[in-house]
Amino acid sequence: MHNNHTIDLKSVAKQTMIDEGFEPDLPPDAQRELHHLPTPTSPSQDLRKLLWSSIDNLESRDLDQLEFAERLPDNSIRVLVGIADVDSLVTKDSAIDAHAAANTTSVYTGVTTFPMLPEELSTDKTSLLEGTDHSAIVIDFVVAVDGSTQTKDIYPALLHNYAKLSYEVVGKWLDEDGPTPPEITRVPQLVQQIQLQLEAANRLRELRKENGAIELETIQANPVTDEHGTVVDLTTTERNSARNIIENFMIAANVTMAQFLEKHEMPSIRRVVRTPKDWPRIVELAQEHNEQLPQEPDSRALADFLERQRRADPIHFPDLSLATVKLLGPGEYVAQSPGGADTGHFGLAVQSYTHSTAPNRRYADLTTQRLLKGASTKAGSPYSSDELQRIAAHCTERENAARKVERKMRKVAAAVFLRNRIGEEFRAIVTGVTPKGTFARAIKPPVDGLVVKGEHGLKVGQQVRVKLLATDPAQGYIDFGVVR
């Protein structure tokens, strides 16, 4: 048995990155490039007077986007989403770009972050930090009263971030009717600005729900460490109105970007979730809740079923969400040629969808930014269709690898956290039945483990009681036995 002090979680995280094929360290040539970054040209549009703000995680320093909204005379709401202009400092085929292209994503392990771009960029020069002016790409669209959107334009502009806000603080204020947080009150008009953003987001969300968007609520345990790197707690992310604002603005911005590229006959990298292969098991899962789903995949029917379950049994809804997520399968990136057939996104109920709003953290988004500039300047695509296909496939593969790293580190932290609780019993949900074994997640604390006793006959989504039999923090192993 290991105790917490013999495990250096940061070292485990780095080794896990290497094991999964990532390059955790910035190579020397990319390091040298940081001293000779290009001087970007300042955009002609100056929008620094608009009341821009950002909402992100409390500890985030790699800020990719800012938001601003204004009500128009016909009661529609114009929404501007400003995206960090990463391409102006990270040029295609530079050493920094090559390193980002190899990893394709920032990896957040809870104990340490492995950024896709050097921190000098992602948390400073290309981050839209509070109190700073930055070049950005503005995605400008109008949200009608019925939630439909109309693209105005996409263009470069100079922005100023007046307030760095967090999901935790803004969400609590919007949802619990508490006092207005000081980060909002100290900026004149920001209260009204955030409320208007929420109104626009709610319109977008309602229309997506009508179109069959699937709203899920899974629980993921994130380790909380003290200054010595000791795991002192496992926290979960709560859905709230602040997340609702950003999620809906980003979906709308990404749809707007895909449509803009299509209109300019540019290829793109689309984010798709294919029609689920495991639909019969989803139908079975609904039957276990005394509900009928159609035999053919139908996102609207699934969304309605999930919404009824959320209302009827909010306590167990995250468990049902988790089972559904597993059965829907992960998203993937695909290269799309102009005018090509669109796979769409089963879970979001949108047809054309690209990733463009997080170029500091995702390589697909940085690629999209370059395609956008090619469209805007009429210079054409900076990538051949073969290159785009390779990038899309590599981004999907690396994203799956990043999920493995993050999952392993959550398990390591959870095993450390539970190491003194052998023999305790927990309520759990079966999350996987595979040739490698049967897996379950305890509800509280929300940790995953392998069912090594009594696993026969279990099905994904089934509720069980489990006993903690063993932990191996170094490997991130947690073993459960089913209590019959």
What can you tell me about this protein's structure?
This protein is an alpha+beta fold and 484 residues long. It folds into three domains: 4-273 and 330-414, no CATH class; 279-327, no CATH class; 421-482, Nucleic acid-binding proteins (OB fold (Dihydrolipoamide Acetyltransferase, E2P)). The chain has helices spanning 9-19, 28-33, 95-103, 119-125, 167-176, 182-185, 190-210, 241-263, 279-288, 299-312, 317-328, 363-376, 385-418, and strands at residues 52-56, 65-71, 77-84, 107-108, 113-114, 133-143, 149-166, 222-225, 231-235, 268-272, 332-336, 425-434, 437-442, 448-453, 463-472, 477-482. It has a five-stranded mixed beta sheet. A five-stranded mixed β-barrel has the order 12-13-14-16-15. The protein is globular, with a radius of gyration of 23 Å. The mean pLDDT is 91.
Largest β sheet strand count, sense and barrel closure:
5 strands, mixed
Alpha-carbon distance between the two ends: 27 Å
Instruction: Tell me the number of helical segments per DSSP (H or I, 4 or more residues long).
Output: 13
- Kindly give the count of domains: 3
- Kindly report the average pLDDT value: 91
**Could you give the order of strands across the largest sheet?**
1-7-6-3-2
Would you list the SSEs in sequence order as H and E?
A: HHEEEHEEHEEHHHEEHEHHHEHHEEEEE
Structural class: alpha+beta
What is the beta-strand fraction? Answer: 15-25%
Number of strands: 16
Alpha-carbon Rg, integer: 23 Å
Unreliably modeled segments: none
